[in-house]
Amino acid sequence: MHILSKSTYIKGEQCPKALYMYKKHPYLRDRLSMEKRAKFKRGTDVGILARTYFPGGVNMTPASPSQFGKMFEKTMQNLNDPNINVMYEAIFIYNDTLIMLDILVRDGDKWRAIEVKSSISLSETYYQDAALQYYVLKGCKVQLSDMQLMYIDNEYVRNGDVDVKQLFKFQSVKEYAEQQLDSIDKKVNGLKDVVNLPNAPKINIGTQCFIPYTCEFKGHCWKKIPKDIYLHTNAYSDKELFSLYNSGIQTNKEFKKNIDPLSLEMNQLDALEQDTFYINYKTLYSTLEKKVRSIAFLNILFYRPAVPVLDGHRPYQEIILAFSILSNENSEVVNWNCLDDYSKMEDGLKILTEELKRFEKVIYFSAQNINFMLQRYNIMDSKDVTYKIINLRDVLKESDFFTSKTKYDFSLKTIYEGLFPEETIFEHSRIILNATSDNELERILVIDDMEEENYCLKKAYKHLLN
């Protein structure tokens, strides 16, 4: 019934080979990461909430892929039914391309097409996404008053129940999409030709393996690329590295001829070839040089909900759901969480502040800033602890820490596994998924996982300083 969909079109735009592999050899995809699962869940939740902006709609989601054709016919019938004013996931097919439109709203004698995004800003990919949908809708002869992107207003502040009329805002992309019609038609036909090829198109590895999204077939396309190849270094830009590689410089020996033997690139390359890590110890020790007896290893579960869950909060404003403190002196553990009631968060910050006063130094690892959180909520006496809190992630970044896995994922997992190649730990996103799950049994696992992560943090810290 169809060859392309919105997702496969975007995939083909990024790399035609990825489209071919998805259609012909989907079993070769890389395993879906916990981080991607968390992002998918967030997008789904926001999409469902957006429907309440236009209540009373008919859900056109098919029970199975085999029902796409039937639901397309039903969608077309509903367009002429005066009793139907809103449809969710309305299905349209044109030129062998299928779309499921998030929301379609009757607007006089025309229809207003809406694509929902869970972000607070709009990327070029989102515009291309909407333009494809506009192309299919136009092909199906749907009379449109507008084509819009519906996304989250970062100025919204929650006060009581979520007000979807204030939470979301709209951006018309009709004019942009109209200008793209001819281009999209050519791209659609070109991608259909790719799918019909007898073999996968020959495409060199390049920046398209990571931009705008990490390709799910990277593992397949890179399987013959040496694990210690210079492409994994990050002192040069990806564009420069792939330009060198695809121009014929495909070994580390050849690459070394082009770089300073005392450069960061060479240090990273040595680490790759020796299957170890590189760090500027001078910078590391200058930050962590003060030796103290009492150290707290702190694991904090930050959560940035797209839709604010607490009064006074904005979209994606950080909250703390749990923390775990591990003492280096006696291995004492202190745990706290508010998984059952997020409104207890500020109480938790006060408890955290009191607990941390007992220690001379506090080590944690996060992309978020705990000091900023303590200051934002004006926690009493937080100044007594903020000066001794050190984010090991920031310190390692400043110290040029590098392993083969940290280029695209500078996480505790990749750093730990770089320090201890024989060991592996779980993704941090697993904790977030469990913490925000509706399943009580999954939420119970959160504290155990946080304690385990904290032991890994302690082990990594001590290894770096020994």
Q: Describe the largest sheet.
A: 7 strands, mixed
Low-confidence stretches: none
Number of domains: 3
Strand content: 15-25%
* SS content category: alpha/beta
Overall morphology:
globular
Amino-to-carboxy terminus distance: 63 Å
Overall pLDDT metric:
93
- Helix count equals 20
- Highest-level CATH class of the largest domain: Alpha Beta
Please estimate the helix content.
Answer: 40-55%
At the third CATH level, what is the topology name of the largest domain? Lambda Exonuclease, Chain A
CATH architecture of the largest domain: Alpha-Beta Complex
Radius of gyration: 26 Å
How many β-strand stretches? 12
Describe how the helices and strands are arranged:
Elements (H helix, E strand, L loop, with lengths): L3 E2 H9 L1 H9 L9 H17 L7 E2 L8 H11 L7 E9 L2 E11 L2 E7 L7 H16 L4 E9 L11 H4 E5 L1 H6 L1 H15 L22 H4 L16 H9 L5 H5 L7 H10 L7 H8 L6 E9 L15 E9 L5 E5 L7 H12 L4 E4 L5 H7 L6 H4 L2 E3 H7 L13 H8 L9 H7 L4 H26 L1
Parallel strand pairs: 1-4, 2-3, 5-6, 8-11, 11-12
Antiparallel strand pairs: 3-4, 4-5, 6-7, 8-9, 9-10
Helix pairs in contact: 1-2, 3-19, 18-20, 19-20
